Structure formats: structure tokens, C-alpha cells
Amino acid sequence: MTQTNIYPFPTIKTPAQPVPAAPAAARTAVATAVASAATQNASCQGLQAPDERVAQLAWAAGFCDGEGCILISKQHTKGRKSPTYRLRLDLVQNNRETLIHFQKTAAACGADSHLFTVGRSTSHNRQIYSLVFDGRHAAQCLDALLPYLVRKRPEALVALSYMRTASPGVLPGPGGHPASIWKLRESYRLKLQAMK
Questions:
Q1: Is 44-194 in CATH node 3.10.28.10?
Q2: Using an 8 Å Cβ cutoff, are 67 and 92 in contact?
Q3: Per-residue pLDDT for 135 more than 50?
Q4: H or E segment and range at residue 160
Q5: What does the alpha-carbon distance between residue 78 and residue 57 come to, in Å, rounded to a whole number?
């Protein structure tokens, strides 16, 4: 049986092009970055071997890239004239064991979290769970995952900059914070919101 070519376009053969080797400087930079990441996360004492640390943190970063939500919440409390700003890292999933594994990986780096059961509605085919890191614990988790984050890396950098520059967790005192602090906190909140 003769096969008919239904695509009348000619086949163009192109010679295989060799893949150029990365410049020595680039290879050195990659090696330095990998070594730096391993050193930076040496504080995660709950993960024993260096290879295990890298593997678990890289897995957690990938999970955060796909399922994580980095935000700065703004809450108005009755009786207070100024709002409250809090950095949060939320991960929502219908597999509780996966969230527990992430929770243990982050806890080994000193980042505590809370696991909640989300109220089930008719739109949920399965039970939903939410893992929440708040304030400095969110920052600790993001700092540990930073070398391995891809999609969420820009958001993590903004969140960590907020923790360094906007004085979160510092009580305003009787005179209150200067207006510049409130303006800075709000600008970080809006910036993270715009990055979604």
C-alpha cells in the first residue's frame, strides 16, 4: 500500500548545530551559586545530610512555586486607628500529607506554621487544607527556599525586603509610627498584590 504525503511541503534538512559550551565564567558562577545555596541552608539542622537538605528544600521550593501564595495582609482592628500589616505564606492543598511534609521541611529551618482544615462547601469534591506561615516564620521559610525558587522568587525577594525595611513587628509606641512607615508598608502590600 502506497502512502500519500498529505503535507505537500518539502522536508528541509538542517545540519545539526553543536551546542556551544558555557563560558568558563558561567560554569564558575553556577558552581559558586550551588555551593552558596548549600552553605546558606546549613542552618536547617533538622535535615541531616547536605544532599538531603538540598533535595528537600528544592522539592519544597518547587511546591511553593506551584501552590504557594505570598502576600501582606492588611487588617483593621476595632479601636485602633492604624491597620495591621503581616507577611504571610499560604499553601492550600487537598492532600494533607503533602502539606505536613512541607511543614516538617520548613520547621527544620526554624519556620513554624499552622495547618488548618478549610470549611468544606458544595464546590469542593475533596477536603481542603491550608498551611499558613505568618510574620517572621514566613520570612524564614522564604529565605530558606530562596536559592531554589523560580516562579515565586521575585515575590519572595519583595517579601524579604519588606521584612528588612518596613519595620514589621515593631510596636508603634505612644507617638505612633511615622507616616513614611505606613506608606512603605502599603506600597509593599500593593506591589505583591500586583505581582499575582
A1: yes
A2: yes
A3: yes
A4: helix 153-165
A5: 40
